[in-house]
Amino acid sequence: MADYVLGIDQSTQGTKALLFDQIGNLICRTDLPHRQIINEKGFVEHNPIEIYQNTIQVVKNLIEKANIDKDDVKVLGISNQRETALCWDRKTGEPVYNAIVWQCARGAKICETLEQDGYAKMIRSHTGLQLSPYFSAAKLAWVLKEVPGAKEKAEKGELCCGTIDSWLVYQLTGGKEFRTDYSNASRTQLFNISTLSWDKEVCDAFGILPECLPKVTDSDGEFGFTDFDGYFNQKIPIHGVLGDSHGALFGQGCLNKGMIKTTYGTGSSIMMNIGETPVLSESVVTSLAWKMNGKVSYVLEGNINYTGAVITWLKDDLKLIESPGETEKLAKRANPKDTSYLVPAFSGLGAPYWDSEAKATIWGMSRTTKREEIVKAALESIAYQITDVIEAMSRESGITIEELRVDGGPTKNAYLMQFQSDMAQIPVKVPSAEELSGIGAAYTAGLAVGIYRKETIFSQINRKQFVPVMEDEVRKLKYQGWKEAVKKVLSK
């Protein structure tokens, strides 16, 4: 009889189910996409019912595909898109509105008002986060303000306000558990990272009742039990819950101070473990990595709205490519002397600029700029943005960064990984495994119930290394050109 660990990675584009054996090898994966609901104002939403149904379905598909006995699955870990926020009826479990996706900046006016009223400094000092519509607080505040009946439900104690992890835990446990973990809580902009509790002063500023928020549980703690709507014969514990980027940090084995990783997803999260003491930063944010075994670890993090989504834009909107795999070949064919820069500020710029009003641009084109050069500029924009954040982190923490561990679909692109190493001037290490977010959550769950051991579980990941080869003078010129292009789009 085998002991399997199940991981669910609920991401921006879809939901994956991952099956791991008793030594931590990924043996099977299934996934389903969900709709991206975007209106004429650029509001981005997901249907939470669709996400939950897909979660159940990917698990069913996984068990069938792997051809294993359901009874051999012993524990579930969940990683999730983080700042995406939603509200639902505490009794019925019905959402009062769609989930508002992390990319959506509809809470910008709420944040502007709070800034004008002098709340920004207090919010940052309590939560570690720059006041921004990127985080969950402004999204939840928007729902309470704009959705008929939502505020009244909240005041009666009939509303759950949470993130995707708490929504899945609630549904998977049949409404018995309304919980989140420390990593997800720290990304809502409602959680005090010093007192490790929901912050009443911040909640009041946003008009959100702390009573509507989930119970915060250790990331490796017990979140309840599920049988996946009766699909399993017996209930299994949910024992590892982590925001996707935190899951990737854990899955990458970045457990010590100074270790850093970047997840290349729809957007990107650059995250550095800074140990047990928080460091407040001017240009990036401070969050919790996790709380495990009763002990908290902190991170510095910079978030970028458009990285992998830039490649999607090339494919779906500009029709310049048919698949992401084409970008490497096209970039290599491009004129290396072309000075085109894409600044993908389609929904403003995240760290280290924090300018939600910035507009996207392609700058520096010449008459010879063609399809190949545009694709090259799009790929390079990803590396430039990440380098901006890495440099800010190193400067403000006083920590010299020695290597960058990376994960996510775009890391298959050798052109991008080499360019990233050249720009950041450090080795870039790409693991053989792709699904680091889900791996991190599953490893957390497996460790919590004693299936895995920390001494051995992280040693299995093989890594390919890219080292800097670009001449320093060339690098400086390219990076300076990027900085000039960014200046063109900043609103302030």
Describe what you observe in this structure.
It is built from 16 helices and 24 strands. The chain has helices at 48-66, 108-116, 120-127, 136-146, 150-155, 164-172, 182-185, 200-206, 244-251, 308-317, 326-333, 371-397, 414-424, 436-448, 454-457, 472-489; strands at 4-10, 14-20, 26-33, 37-38, 44-46, 73-80, 85-89, 99-100, 159-163, 179-181, 191-192, 197-198, 215-217, 225-226, 236-243, 260-264, 268-275, 285-292, 295-304, 341-343, 361-363, 404-407, 428-431, 463-466. By secondary structure, the protein is α+β, with helices and mostly antiparallel strands. 35% of the residues lie in helices and 24% in strands. A hairpin with a 5-residue loop joins strand 2 (14-20) and strand 3. Helix 10 (308-317) packs antiparallel against helix 12 and helix 12 (371-397) crosses helix 13 (414-424). The strands form seven sheets. It has a seven-stranded mixed β-sheet with strand order 18-19-17-16-22-23-24. It has a six-stranded mixed β-sheet with strand order 3-2-1-6-15-14, with helices on both faces. It has two domains: 4-243, Nucleotidyltransferase, domain 5 (2-Layer Sandwich), CATH 3.30.420.40; 253-426 and 462-492, Nucleotidyltransferase, domain 5 (2-Layer Sandwich).
Cα end-to-end separation = 62 Å
Low-confidence stretches: none
The averaged pLDDT comes out at 95
- How many β-strand runs? 24
Our estimate of the beta-strand percent is 15-25%
Structural class, from secondary structure content? alpha+beta
Structurally, the number of domains stands at 2
